[in-house]
Amino acid sequence: MLIRPFGINEFWIIVMAAQWTIALSAIAFAGGGIGGLLIALARVSDAKWPRLLATGFIRIFQGTPLLMQLFLVFFGMNILGFAINPWIAAAVALTLHASAFLGEIWRGCIEAIPPGQREAATALGLRYFNRMRYIILPQASRIAIAPTVGFLVQLIKGTSLAAIIGFTELTRQGQIINNATFSPFMVFGTVAAVYFILCWPLSLLARRMEVKFSRSTTR
Amino acid sequence: MYTFNFEPVLAGFDKLLLGAWVTVQLSCAAMVIGLILSILCAAGKTSRVAPLRWVIDAYIEIIRNTPFLVQIFFIFFGLPSLGIRLSPNSAALVALVVNFGAYGTEIIRAGIESIQKGQVEAGTALGLSKLQIFRYIIMKPALRTVYPALTSQFIYLMLTSSVVSAISADDLAAAGNDLQSATFASFEVYIVITAMYLVMSIGFSAVFSMIEKAAFRYPLSR
């Protein structure tokens, strides 16, 4: 077998594979945003069943490894009669995973709004939808920004596990290049550096917003 | 219509239990060593030697902003070119310790920062040595404050440890991969393994709340 050296071409192939990591993260984050909002609303609902279902969903996804969630969706697609497709399996599994985590984060933010706000809105004659839309969620979303950005970092790192089910994103591309060049130190060093460049600014942003927020609330 | 077949999973269940035991051992060892590393790094961050603080900061940021899978590939495949060759199980342990250390340091540091300066000054006034102050006045209440964050980070570590199956360590997920490729009952194997992880995370939370009751029984303030 021909072993080729790790050169500038190999470097660029790895860097370009980051687009798939970004695409997968974006899809899971968007899907998880919608799912997470539904989960959070169900979790704080007055009705018993939505609350129980949402709690169960969160418990299961927070109590099992993301890798197993990916495997289950990957092989589960086959059982449901769909052709196995790593790209769709990864997107679905990460969306469900993000829904559970964002749902739990946002539940905390909604519950952090003092009950008087809700009572006042009810007293003004606002029904559930308008109460959430105009009173509760706008206030909760301000608290939610920092932990949500923090979770986005976790999600970007989580997309690396899609490599194990064979989706060619950043980490899988690194494995492929490593098999051809046998320079794991350079290859995985480069892969790690690309993840770092994606994640570090977000981590800094999350931390800065957290500090800013805690300063504005402890006055 | 697909018919589920759990027989091969039951036939190989002893192997899965063995894998679960390795996962428990690996996670507990990584937690204990990782906790020591976290306390050392957190203490190092309060040091007056600036380069030491920079090294610890760099370590934390690099680990927290790269995926665990890439870290373990780097340790298992990359370090041999520096002459450090590890077996899959040792590489898994090293990777888990290094990973937990970064998150643990931040948690412990938050605990240390919650201790009021007056308490340390009171300790100095009582003639306690630096080590005594660190151990009794800073660490003990700090650990109590951050205990919930620490235990949820540990459960996260236990779940993350499934990723070490990617370098064929002997953990539960790897036992599942072996069983899966021998029986082709993929979905059945992984649903059972997922349930086993869920049971382990519930079990660990129960153990942690028992430890909390036993270790932190003294009153917070009078």
Properties at a glance:
heterodimer, A: 219 residues, mainly alpha, MetI-like fold, 8 helices, 0% strand, B: 222 residues, 9 helices, globular, Polar amino acid transport system permease protein (chain A), transport (chain A), MetI-like_sf (chain A), cell membrane (chain A)
Question: How does this model look, in words?
Answer:
The complex is a heterodimer of chains A (219) and B (222). Chain A has one domain: MetI-like fold (Orthogonal Bundle). Chain A has 8 helices and no strands. The mean pLDDT of chain A is 93. Chain B is built from 9 helices and no strands. The mean pLDDT of chain B is 92.
Describe what is shown at a glance.
Chain A is mainly α. Helices cover 81% and strands 0% of the residues of chain A. The longest helix of chain A is centred in the N-terminal third of the chain and has 36 residues, at 8-43.
Blueprint of the fold:
The complex is a heterodimer of chains A (219) and B (222).
Chain A: H1 8-43, H2 48-62, H3 66-79, H4 86-111, H5 115-123, H6 128-158, H7 170-181, H8 184-217
Helix pairs in contact in A: 1-2, 1-4, 1-7, 1-8, 2-4, 3-4, 4-6, 5-6, 6-8, 7-8
Chain B: H1 7-11, H2 13-45, H3 50-64, H4 68-78, H5 88-113, H6 117-125, H7 130-160, H8 172-183, H9 186-215
Helix pairs in contact in B: 2-5, 2-8, 3-5, 4-5, 5-7, 6-7, 7-9, 8-9
Membrane topology (chain B): Multi-pass membrane protein
Keywords (chain B): Cell membrane, Membrane, Transmembrane, Transmembrane helix, Transport
Subcellular location (chain B): Cell inner membrane; Cell membrane
